[in-house]
Amino acid sequence: MEDLPGYSRHSRAAQTQASSSNASNGNSRSGSTYSISLEDSKAHKWLTLHVLNRSPNPTSLPCFYQGDKIVGHVDLDVLKSEPIKAITIKVTAGTTFVGQEEDEFLKIENELWNPSVLLPDGSKVSKFEKGTYSWPFLISLPSEVEVLDGKVKKTFPLPATFSEKAVAGYLDYKLTVTIKRKGLNVNKTLVTSFAYVPVVRAQPPSPLLQKAIKENLPLLGPEDDPAGWHVLPSVNVRGTLFDSRQVEVTCTLALANPLTYARGTFAPVCLTLTGTDAQALGALSSPSAIRLFLVRSLATGSDATVELDDSERRTDNFFLETGAVGKRVLQGEVEVKRSSKPSCLFPKFTTRVSVICNPPLFISCSDMHVYKP
Fold first, then answer.
1. How many Cβ atoms sit within 10 Å of the Cβ of residue 28?
2. Which stretches of sequence are listed as region Disordered (predicted)?
């Protein structure tokens, strides 16, 4: 692991606070229109789905934030008359793991047309003659969903999309248009995945931390600003120094409150070392002795939402991913990379973020929450 370059704690802490403030103020709706079509053997686009979404690139998959409504229209371009039983559009979401069927936790289906429903122009047809037809739609995404957690149904916030290469599971959202045909004719479906992003509003830092950021002052530690820090249980480190004498140092790691950090920002940390041996304190406080890691875990299975020690979880449903972010001594910052996935507490699919300090220490904080600003 390489040393990180020098940094200004105030500018980065201000960046973290600014991101939290932006999340609190909400996000303005802007983006593009995503389109996807079904074609016949002659490359004629006979069924097209158009969706307004937050993605700035019209060729990227659609993206929606918590509280958004999915708005768009479905176009049917008929070259040859054909009887159709119904046209529907639905939103589905589910978790999938390698070798297993999808476990669906969300389904919203709307019928755009059947023979008894008027067309948007007010007319009624039993079958579609040659021409172009269009149906607008609006689907509201819920902010919560009721899911079976173990043997009990509970309400959880709608989780973020999760998909990465070489990861055993993923959480996917889909938008599907179905043309239901009569008789033995096969139904036709037009499907696109889309990204869903929860909106998280972090609480503000302590007044003293806000003052330090605003006035570009040194950050006060846990002793002077207890409300500004989440202090973890102390760990005693015992060992032999210079192969000659036994020493003991007490190490206490603290992270700045609140334990909710936006991606692309920095989490202030403070490590306090206490002991009676000055040489031992000097050795442990050197950059080569202490490293901080940001670790993400993915828990699956029936106990995914239960907070367990890593050693208590089965190796086939618990996966750790580490990203070394540099060495920090006494007081510094841990980078929360923009590529980090948001934290998620959801049945059978829970991701947690921890800060781990080692070696020779092992101090872990698993109460952190990472979100997309």
1. 6
2. 1-34
State both tokens at 112: 């755009």
Q: What is the pTM of this model?
A: 0.73
Please name the residue that has the structure tokens 């089965």. Answer: 314
What average pLDDT does the segment 233-252 reach? 82
Structure token pair of residue 63: 């993206």
Angle in degrees, CA 55, 373, 15, rounded to 5: 130
Per-residue pLDDT tens digits for 137-149: 999 999 999 988 8
Q: Write b or e for each residue in 103-138: b if 16 or more Cβ atoms lie within 10 A of its Cβ, otherwise e.
A: bebbeeeeebbeeeeeeeeeeeeeebeeeebebebe
Residue 267: closest CA among 218, 310, 328, 212 = 328
pLDDT, tens digit, for every residue of 18-27? 444 443 333 4
The β-bridge relationship of strands 188-197 and 63-65 is parallel
Domains of the chain plus CATH, in order, are: 9-23+219-371 (2.60.40.640), 27-197 (2.60.40.640)
CA-to-CA distance for 296 and 283, rounded, in angstroms? 29
Q: Which H/E stretch holds residue 13?
A: helix 9-25
Residue 218, Cβ density class (10 Å: 0-12 exposed, 13-18 middle, ≥19 buried): exposed
pLDDT by residue (tens digit) across 183-239?
A: 777 899 999 999 999 988 778 889 998 898 788 888 888 888 999 999 888 888 788
pLDDT digits (tens, 9 = 90+) for 105-144: 999 999 999 988 888 888 888 888 899 999 999 999 999 9
Q: Are 354 and 362 in contact (CB under 8 A)?
A: no
Largest Cα separation within the chain, whole Å, is 95
N-term to C-term CA, the chain: 28
Contact status, residue 159 vs residue 349, Cβ threshold 8 Å? yes
User: Which residues are CB-neighbours of 316 under 8 A, at least 6 positions away?
Assistant: none
H-only helix segments in 158-289: 207-214, 278-284
